[in-house]
Amino acid sequence: MTESPLRRAQLIHTFGVGALYVTNEKVGLIGAGLDFWFQDPDGKNINDRNEFLISERRLAKRLNVDHFMKPPDYRLPIKSYVQNSSSKNLKIRIPFLRFPQWHYCINRKCSTMRRLMLTENTNKPKCLVCNTRMVQVPLVSICEDGHIDDFPWNEFVHRTLTPPCSGDKLKFKFTGVPSLAGQSIYCEGCNKRRTLATALGKNISIEKGVAFPCNGRRTWLDEEGGESCNKTYGGSLRSSLKVYFSKTAKSIYIPEDNSNINPELEDIFLDRSWSSLITTIKGLVGEKIKSNFFRDFSTINNQVLKGIIESQNNILNIKDRLAKFTDDELNSCIDKYINNEEALSSDTSELEFGTEEEEDNYRSKEYKLFLKTNNIKNFETKPININNYESIISKYFKNITLVHKLVETSAMYGFTRKEFQENLRLEEYKNKLRLYPISNFNETWLPATQTAGEGIFLEIKPDLLESWEQKSEIIERMGIIKSNYLSSVGKSDEDTNELPVARKVLLHTLSHILINQLVYDCGYGASSLKERIYSSLNENNNMSGILIYTVGGDSEGSMGGLVRMGRPGFFEGTFKRALIKSSWCSVDPVCSEIGSSTGQGPNSSNLSACHNCALVPETSCEMFNSFLDRTLVTGDYKNRSIGFMGEEIKNF
Prior knowledge:
Layout: E1 20-22, E2 28-31, E3 53-54, H1 57-63, E4 67-69, E5 96-98, E6 102-105, E7 113-115, E8 134-136, E9 139-142, E10 148-150, H2 153-158, E11 170-174, E12 183-187, E13 192-195, E14 205-207, E15 210-211, E16 234-237, E17 245-252, H3 263-270, H4 272-284, H5 292-295, H6 303-316, H7 318-322, H8 327-337, H9 346-349, H10 356-370, E18 374-376, E19 379-384, H11 391-394, E20 397-416, H12 426-431, E21 445-460, H13 462-469, H14 472-489, H15 502-522, E22 529-536, E23 543-550, H16 561-564, H17 571-583, H18 590-595, H19 631-634
Parallel strand pairs: 4-21
Antiparallel strand pairs: 1-2, 2-5, 3-4, 6-7, 6-8, 9-10, 9-16, 11-12, 12-13, 14-15, 17-20, 18-19, 19-20, 20-21, 21-23, 22-23
Helix pairs in contact: 4-6, 15-17
């Protein structure tokens, strides 16, 4: 099987562990588990993985892992004419398995079906009957807990969970009708036939009233058996979007709560080349240590430890690297990483991952720092005096901060199928990524990518929001969104914890219309801009902000075009043009009227929002282009006062 190149980011989001992928030769594959990453061509684990390490302590603590790893890149040996060069970690491939396993012969007179091995590496397998090429079947079975398996062709055609035939005489027939109704499965052993017209759906109907149970198979781990699962399999086209939803957690790098810790010094302590040294010190030292431990080795009483430190000093250059830091800075890092005197944040240790409260607490730390001036490594922000802007800006915004540099870490912690929902706990998601659990916490990791960029942070005046949220028209409009969404997904009125409040819908929509305008004003492509919504009604973490940013640059960040548009004299024009475009969609009044009645977009969760006015590329949106409504921002052509900023339209 030939190689198919993938970008690192694709292995986190689109084609990660458990995802289906089609090569250039039209061979369907499924991403293998993390156990099989970082292996050389001989199948042995590589020893030096430090170059792939990503340190994001705050996110690692949230996801309960020690560190993150970048997906390894494929590299060939350096040419022999390059002098004094060393090549390492060569020819590392991300493994994939052949899936679906069932194939059928493309010779219409034959149509024989055959099941191949997951590890079969032939691009064009041949039919054993007529020697014609075989291709993979179009359907798979998926479970909302992430399990996936071949479609139960034998049970399906015989309409029973205990078919009398073994399944070795199945044929995949076509009648010429361009739909699944024109495709059928035929068993030569008993002459049973069944079309695929009823193959798709939430449950695979084997016979009337009987759904096919999930066998818990983790195909991506090369596992023939399965884990316990009480769900049922649903039939799906293998090209369907619902086959795979990657679960990712994103984080903006901010300095740790302990202000005494120097970020540059902390990077040294977090370096993987130092990890074994720190582990050794923690295991051998019998008491708390101070900065003098690293400055004067003669003070070390433990002779074994002293010998190790002196030896490592020749390799790691310990004394020289730490010489420029003060004793207070060094003691803070020692207390945190060696003496274990760090106090865990209560919001991290007590709240369950993925809940709204936990998410708000996590983002609130970023929110508070965006309101301050920061000039440290990987985080540079500068708030602008709001009075420097025109009155249309100072009327609605409390703070505007130019983010000259930020670093975003995006980590994959699991996946689901059928629906994008949180139906498992964090550890259950993580367990699906690997076949063998890791007992040593220091070796726990998740795949991630880390990129630098710039952005604009906007904070809307909370007092204006609070009074606007209480309007009867707003409450009524949010009721329409709630009703449309719940009826679309088949849930009751009690299942409302996943629905955003009016504030979040407003911030989300405003973010989208600003992104669509900034595309023209700052020159970035639409898919290069992203959003991060900060919305909370919690008294302790009240938030009403938007971060619009790009991480399309290299490790040093981007070129400043987005930050420039946030400055006084520039942002006003962008804001006005965005509001004008939001006030009237090119397909209005249809967009507004359909949105106000039946809803539109994913699960009918949008009101006045379509591709012509408020939608952005899905890589830019945090919520899959759901829960959008222009009317909440600028009102509609019948009543502008509904919109939070609707009165401004009358003045343009």
